[in-house]
Amino acid sequence: MRSDALAETVVTRFAPSPTGFLHIGGARTALFNWLFARSLGGKMLLRIEDTDRARSTEPAIAAILDGLKWLGLDWDGDAVFQFARAARHRQAVDEMLASGRAYPCYATPQELEEMRSTAQAEGRPPRYDGRWRDRPEADRPTDRQPAIRLRAPNEGETVVDDLVQGRVVIPNKDLDDLVLLRSDGTPTYMLAVVVDDHDMGVTHVIRGVDHLTNAARQTQIYEALGWAVPKMGHIPLIHGPDGAKLSKRHGALGVEAYREMGYLPAALRNYLARLGWSHGDDEIFSTEQAIEWFDVADVGRSAARFDEAKLQNLNGHYMRATPDAELMTALRAALPHLPGGPQAQARLDAAGLWPAFESALPGLKERAKTLVELLDGARFLLDERPLSLEPAAEQLLTPDARALLAKLHGRLAALPDWTADGAEQEVRALAEEAGVKLGALAQPLRAALTGRKTSPGIFDVLVALGREESLARIEDQAAAA
């Protein structure tokens, strides 16, 4: 299939409806279109399908654009807004009316409801019965405006040679004369999609398998207009880890929620690429590798399973592998969106704690799977004295431990240079003199410095906090003996 695609300029499109945020399934569809276009040196276009005026909102449009930008999925040219093209959609219908490939239908809502009821009672799928298909013009009523329907073929088959699902054959008797224009003159989704894809030069339509039936209907519209049908690939849906349809309890959230949970865009791209597509046994790969390897023909037909635990583990790998400077840049960009992030940013800025954060980052990122966890691990830097101690940390600060901290305070205060090695030598020396194991001093020291039982390496914590703050925190707990 790739060899065929190389013979032309590949143009894909992502066409979300702005009735809600960019959900995770839509993000994967956008990613597959983006990877396919980029792998073949083509273009990915963006179309906002805002014809549902009652449900389309500006905040949803903004969220979709923002979500794509955050994911790093850029599109070519300006976004196209479908509603603005209604006149062009009607023009295409005029062409079909002129060629006899469409006709006016004056069926009333009551008649349509009777058709549905009769079909249901007889155990048939509800379909329009074609009653206005061949009626003479003299029969047309003057008290109402007609809908315009496609004059679909009654016999034969409509074939979709799908790039993912294979050859799909649908008997034409199972497809009725669908509505192209409603009686109020507004275009239907089926019509608008075909006209827009044709006018935008789309060569490949990659979308969810739930659109597979639409593909047959849209193929008939293409043929009625005498236009070439783009190649189509219908990708499997995403299920939860239990095999059930993906829902909010599985992680069917908007992309912005994953940003708020502290995921890195590169990790989410990697994870989404593996939902339904694979390149051998490769689980972790760069975006550049994904572009090089991706082929929609390698997408499987079975539903993919979303597992947030796997996503977390993958994100943790990306955090550990990301250079510190790059990770700091990502954190700074994410802070406005993380829980407590704006407050943390204000504290880091006001107290000049960014250098301390950077020095602690190597230890912090080893323990964190998300930027939220990274920020939580750095709370010891952001907290102001006197620290609020976790119960487990408070249990470590026994009277004997506080007495040792008082002795350690003097020794650390006398250090000529404030380094991790120098601090470690003093802590080890004092533990040996006191006849206790290193942990008997290091653990209370950790509690005094961070208010927690766990933290990055304690000597790295001393360096990150600096001499003055470290000594003050030790003194706070020693004085409480």
From TrEMBL:
Segments carrying motif 'HIGH' region: 16-26
Stretches with biased composition (Basic and acidic residues): 124-143
Positions with a binding annotation for ATP: K248
Entry EC number(s): 6.1.1.17
GO MF term list: ATP binding; glutamate-tRNA ligase activity; tRNA binding; zinc ion binding
Start and end residues of each stretch annotated as Disordered: 115-147
PANTHER family registered for this protein in UniProt: GLUTAMATE--TRNA LIGASE, GLUTAMATE--TRNA LIGASE, MITOCHONDRIAL-RELATED
Assigned protein family: Belongs to the class-I aminoacyl-tRNA synthetase family. Glutamate--tRNA ligase type 1 subfamily.
Name of the protein described by the UniProt record: Glutamate--tRNA ligase
UniProt source species: Hansschlegelia quercus
Name of the encoding gene: gltX
